[in-house]
Amino acid sequence: MPATDTVHIHLSDDRNYEIRIGSGLLNEPASWQGLPKAAAAVIVSNETVAPLYAERLRERLLAVYKRVDLVVLPDGEQHKGWESLNRICDHLLGEALDRKTVLFALGGGVIGDMTGFAAAIYMRGVPFVQVPTTLLAQVDSSVGGKTAINHPLGKNMLGAFYQPERVIADLDTLDTLPDRELRAGLAEVIKYGPIADAAFLCWIEDNLDALLSRDKAVLGYAVRRSCEIKADVVGQDEKEQGLRAILNFGHTIGHAIESGLGYGEWLHGEAVACGMVLAADLSQRMGLMPADFVERLQTLIERAGLPVKPPRLGADRYLQLMRVDKKAEAGAIRFVLIEALGQAGLHSVPDALIVETLAAHGAA
Ligand SMILES: NC(=O)c1ccc[n+]([C@@H]2O[C@H](COP(=O)([O-])OP(=O)(O)OC[C@H]3O[C@@H](n4cnc5c(N)ncnc54)[C@H](O)[C@@H]3O)[C@@H](O)[C@H]2O)c1
Ligand SMILES: O=C(O)C(=O)C[C@@H](O)[C@H](O)[C@H](O)COP(=O)(O)O
Ligand SMILES: [Zn+2]
């Protein structure tokens, strides 16, 4: 049996679940035992991931379920919308699959978010399991139950909070991940340092080269520590009434970049990386953090091969895009700012200061 790290996420009403992390977990029969009983399972994946891992997963699931279907969606952030969601629902309804059917999201965050949303709405809710195959999905999107699709006017604007039954993060699936996607995943790993764990930020700085060269033990620790931090935050504030917003550090500008450019041109992790640099700068301009913090974070993000210079969409366009951010209230844009290393909070920022910051970074 492969070495497995298990992180527990504690939620109200006995909805706790496990995040299992390790090499070879896809092949491990125990990964798929003890899930809700059902006649059928459906693997949802995409054109890139399905040929790599779907057959292996299907074989394992056939030991548990009489029937295992596969729905293969087109690949890409631009396909995280109604059409793909309908494809999943069309299959479930077309095959008359019952409300016990278990969905398995096999892929990155795009597949995970859409499969979770389909699970939330099909017959008002069927169980689902996250099988994340990107670094980003293993450290972030598979955990915590945010499910969604994009709308042309805003990122993740249609969705539900709906928790998976279990998360199975097989580190071996990262072997086939393109370098650009690995770096994008590192953006969300880096995020956890400034918002929640100063020591983890130092660890990332010290281990960045090993992460980039895909040292399995180092990657495993990054996944585990990230999941621990996220599980702790989500356990305290599942539906983002307050604390959970810290996980959105870098996302106010990040999401504006993604939707402003049309989904898919910048990867989510790339947009978040750049958004974190600007949010760090805003933290300084608001008098919360010293200038050397901004330099430190920017240096790390650059070392990770991630972008730090935002696209020049113009200040008005950025403001327009950010006013539909889910954290905005009564038209006021709110940012997650760093208050001390390892501590963050939600702050209203005057438009003039946002414009000044955008201009300083060549975005306006
Ligand atoms: N729900 C959440 O809490 C949460 C958190 C962070 C991000 N997200 C969402 O996640 C999405 C980004 O996720 P992502 O970065 O995983 O992108 P992604 O799902 O688009 O996957 C990235 C690319 O890698 C490919 N891929 C996946 N696994 C692979 C593997 N093992 N080998 C080779 N190729 C592989 C995919 O086909 C895709 O081309 C965004 O939509 C973002 O909004 C959600
Ligand atoms: O889990 C969360 O909460 C997060 O904010 C994690 C983010 O990395 C993620 O991109 C999330 O989907 C953004 O949430 P949204 O509510 O701003 O759409
Ligand atoms: Zn994110």
TrEMBL record:
| Domain named 3-dehydroquinate synthase N-terminal: residues | 71-183
Protein name as annotated: 3-dehydroquinate synthase
Its ancestry begins with:
Bacteria, Pseudomonadati, Pseudomonadota, Betaproteobacteria, Burkholderiales
Q: Which organism is it from?
A: Pelomonas candidula
Q: Give the family from UniProt.
A: Belongs to the sugar phosphate cyclases superfamily. Dehydroquinate synthase family.
This enzyme catalyses: 7-phospho-2-dehydro-3-deoxy-D-arabino-heptonate = 3-dehydroquinate + phosphate
* Major enzyme class: lyase
Gene3D superfamilies in UniProt: 3.40.50.1970, Dehydroquinate synthase-like - alpha domain (1.20.1090.10)
Q: Which UniProt keywords apply?
A: Amino-acid biosynthesis, Aromatic amino acid biosynthesis, Cobalt, Cytoplasm, Lyase, Metal-binding, NAD, Nucleotide-binding, Zinc
SUPFAM superfamilies recorded = Dehydroquinate synthase-like
Q: Which cofactor does it need?
A: Co(2+); Zn(2+); NAD(+)
Q: Any idea which positions bind Zn(2+)? A: 188, 251, 268
Q: Where in the cell is it found?
A: Cytoplasm
Query: Which Gene Ontology MF annotations are present?
Result: 3-dehydroquinate synthase activity
Its gene is aroB
Q: Could you tell me what this protein does? A: Catalyzes the conversion of 3-deoxy-D-arabino-heptulosonate 7-phosphate (DAHP) to dehydroquinate (DHQ).
